[in-house]
Amino acid sequence: MVSSSKFKPEGHNSVAPYLLVKQGQRMIDFLRAVFEAQELERVSGPQGTLRHAELRIDDSIVMLGERPEPKYHASTHVYMADVDLCYERALAHGAKSVVAPRDLQYGDRTAGFEDPEGNVWWIGTRRAG
Asked: Could you say which of 60, 81, 94, 121 would form a disulfide bridge with 116 (CB–CB 3.0 to 4.6 Å)?
């Protein structure tokens, strides 16, 4: 087990819920009104869609992104020291690939897989500060 937190952004826990929604701004407004969430990050996609957002609720982060017709409505995001190794271990233990490891523009290396029970996991390693 790696004790260093250099693989995740400052102020983030290793594990966070990731909501997949049709209307991102509506969900952000809901989280703000109900939980007094503070928006930390927003990444826009094509035609003004919300590709990714992060909100802080007290000491925790909730992530979300818009999907026109989400197959899943929630998943789990885990920051890991080595995305590629974790992804390979998941596949070796019966997981199905959702997205192979790749580097994204905001500085994370990410991947996704579906576990044998049908839960979706997104894993990431922060590569840029």
From this structure: 94
